[in-house]
Amino acid sequence: MSGHSTYEPKNPLAKWFDKQLPILSMSYDFMVFPTPKNLNYLWTFGGILSMCLVIQLVTGIVLAMHYTPHVDMAFSSVEHIMRDVNYGWLLRYIHATGGSMFFIAVFVHILRGMYYGSYKAPREILWILGVIILLLMMMTAFMGYVLPWGQMSFWGAKVITSLFSAIPFVGDWVVTLLWGGFSVDNPTLNRFFSLHYLMPFVIVGAVALHIWALHIPGSNNPTGVSVKSGQDTVPFHPYITMKDGFAAIVFLVLFAFFVFYKPNYLGHSINYEIADPLKTPEHIVPEWYFLPFYAILRAIPDKLGGVLAMAGAIVILFFLPWLDTSRVRSAKYRPIFRQFFWLFVIDVVILGFVGANPPEGWWITVGQFATAYYFAHFLLIIPLVGLIENPKPLPASISESVLANHPKGEPAAQPAE
Ligand code: HEM
Prior knowledge:
The mean pLDDT is 96. The protein folds into two domains: 29-279, Cytochrome Bc1 Complex, Chain C (Up-down Bundle); 285-389, plastocyanin oxidoreductase (Helix Hairpins, Orthogonal Bundle), CATH 1.10.287. By secondary structure, it is mainly α. The protein has 16 helices and two strands. The protein has helices at 12-20, 23-31, 45-64, 74-83, 88-116, 124-146, 151-162, 171-179, 186-215, 236-261, 291-299, 303-318, 320-323, 335-356, 361-388, 398-403, and strands spanning 34-36, 233-235. It binds protoporphyrin IX containing FE. Protoporphyrin IX containing FE (HEM) binds next to helix 3, helix 5, helix 6 and helix 9.
């Protein structure tokens, strides 16, 4: 929110309060914030993500009141939550399913940004903050999955933390630090619990910066054309609040379907067996949202190389604003890029399947090709397509593009002043 507030307190108490702590004028400015009038439903996912964050925080805090972070009691404390705590089963299923729903929403949100070029100037910092949030979310989800202390919790923790030993010189020291000892044990569970509790609050801080950075240039929109006049925007409330609210309700229906009908569908049944350091499961696989990255890790037949590729798969996102050479933001006007965008989505889905299967036979070859394509998309395709492609003509303004959808000359619905 930049510029001067247009808020005028209606009563002396509000005036007195706002002068000393301008929360009222900030909230008012937030509600009247000019938003492009052509936003589609893909722009509701930022709101949906904020809702997911609140749901995870509230359910997580109550779960923590009944959970015991000790290797001898963690597993049974989760069973106690499921069986004895009033509505404990509901809290746990909402929290566990909520992790998956959060990632569904964040993947849509990121792909929306990639399709419409929302990462391009003047929104690079907003995008970078988003990538930082993604990293924080991944760390939080990984540590959360360890807490029930089932077989997959234990072995997942062991496989992933052991990767750090590939770091030259300091690798073993880092692993000992993560474990709090010389194996995955009680100190590991304790530090993961503590950090899993802390990190969502760090995410809240990062989201506040993310939204602040959004409010400086304002939202991008499906045309990618910048807002030119007051005619191009509508106030955030009631237009966006209503649309975001409706989308959130639809999203909650899907959420509720999983919670009430398929609560364990997105998890692993083997995590209902208590962790046993002496019994390695046949397949150790992470949660579905990590599978593409897990596939990239295993595509390189060298431990350090695999770790670097996996980390690189996220780090490369930081550089996306500078790898894209196109003058045009939105894929709507970029016929070649649009096709490569969908090939990229298919590639990530393939990587997901590769990650879910054991690294044998032709899965290895598919994984290596899909990994090579993932990096080629960012390092070759995006820079080259931006240079070669001839974009379609852009509309002169958002209003022109909106009115083009009403050929009979009937004006698009205008907001009441
Ligand atoms: C907890 C996770 C997140 C929350 C709560 C969140 C919240 C929001 C909100 C409320 C908006 C404005 C509404 C909208 O455009 O949908 C937004 C926009 C945006 N977010 Fe996020 N976000 C999150 C994660 C991410 C991630 C991981 C990225 C990218 C890696 C990202 C990139 C962006 C971009 C580029 C925009 C501007 C979109 C535009 O104006 O076209 N966000 N975010």
